[in-house]
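Fold this: DELLA protein GAI1
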Amino acid sequence: MAEALFSFEPFEFNGIQGGYGTLEGYEKDNSRKGKQDHLFGIEDWEEFESLCSQYGLFQESIPDKRAHFSKAQQQQQQSPRSNHWALDELQFDTVSTPIQPIQESKKLEDFQAGIKEPLHEPNREKPYPFSLSSLELLNNYGGGVKKLKRENLSNISNEINAERQRLSTEEVMRVAGARYVEFSSQRGDDFTLHMHAFGFALMGLSQEETKDVELVHFLLSAAEKVGCQQFERASRFLTRCEWIASDTGNPVERIVFYFAKALREKIDRETGHFKGFKGNGRKDLIDLGFATNLASIACHQDLPFIQVTQFTGIQAIVEHVALSGKIHLVDLAIRSGVQWTVLMQALADRDESPVSLLKITAVTTMDKNHVEETGKRLESFAKSLNLPFSFNVVFVTEMKELKEELLAVEAEEVVAVYAPLVLRSMIPRPDYLDVLMRVIKKLSPSIMVVTEVEANHNSPSFVTRFIEALFFYSAFFHCLEVCMGSTTKSQYRMMTEAMFFGEGIRNMIAAEGEERVVRNVKMDVWRAFFSRFGMVEMEFSEASLYQASLIIKRFACGSCCSLEKDGKCLIVGWKGTPIHSLSAWKFT
């Protein structure tokens, strides 16, 4: 049973929103009720059983599937991929060098600040040295790079081919970065050099691609001037960006729009012209990450990353509670809770050792009533399965208030902890993170599943943050264009870009110190941090790995999605750029 592969259909939110055929129907009905921020308007989840219906709950081994998985793994190991992550030893040989993965260059000593003060960077951002020497940050985004020592798990075969498909957003950024490094040695302060340097340099690109590269060149010029605190000159380049870029344009124009907007705000902050923005700052930004509105639903439906990490994590949990009678699941960010119907279905179908109680405890610092409504829906679903179930809400105003006794773990309960994209919200407040981890350790969970953003957006250096963020969001914007670019989904793509990514870019680029709350760190930082609490990383089973590869294949855009192993951790990416990490842990 421990290796059994539970079955599912990918999240079909349309089927559990009270019978609405489309998101549009749900939105129209909810607009009449004034509840557009609620995820579901339902009384039962009968149709959600389709999540677990297609493949059946496998009790037997899966030799054929594993053989297929191994073959795909071998094929992927032979395929080069791009990883534009390490920014400390960039080396562009030529613009046309094949895209290849690179090895993360940062060593453990580079994360001492994240160990002594967990994941927290001191406020030492000034001055911002975006000089010619700093342009070496762009050199890694091209040829002459090392191959990433990761184990490829999915067969990605959609590299740009000799017949010249259109460059992706991230590839445009790479070309622009290469040209910027090349021309940096020629440029002075002559604005016209930037205007006309592309005529002979971008042969082979289409007219639109050339315009995109030039636009990114202006953005990089503006960022350099901001880094050097030459705000008047930066403003000239930003004006050019703002004239061309648009939040309704192509992906390059859209991402330049949001980064230019963030740079403009940074100039205003530095020159004392920033008047602030309405809202509750930190709380509003963090709440965005936990939102369950229509844009979030569309992302669940159309983007592979979330479903891959959710279902693979659930598979791992199922395996570690396979023979337990009393199961206590602690969810640190339950959101809609819809993912747990998959676990409930798997437990209800269990042939051996029937479950005497499944208890879910949702820890929240946000709307308690909303979480309680989620609990009611889960209780209704459990009742339809005849599954003994209880749901508890632990509400704390701040995570540092969490205590072991609030979680009410009872004897004979096997505990599993689920932390989806939540630990990152506490990086600016390492004392909160410390409290949370110490409480979890006292629970002695059989497994803790962690999903995080696989990116380095926590550097005190404006230069590093800007370039890391630019390439990361370029990959994500391209993903949104491919997966949500249709006319029917474009409104949700625009909402996602504006509400989630736009605000994240703004905070990451424009804010400093305690105001900079949008921070991400890579898996090696989390490993160093978790080791302080005696946590040991666990291997994902072959069933879990197969589950992940199966999810990817069910998406039309799955060929662009990469699944890799970084040690025992899974990395889900887009065309080779890491997006999310999924890891499993136990306490020693």
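The radius of gyration is 24 Å. Residues 8-134, 142-163, 189-201 have pLDDT under 50 and may be disordered.
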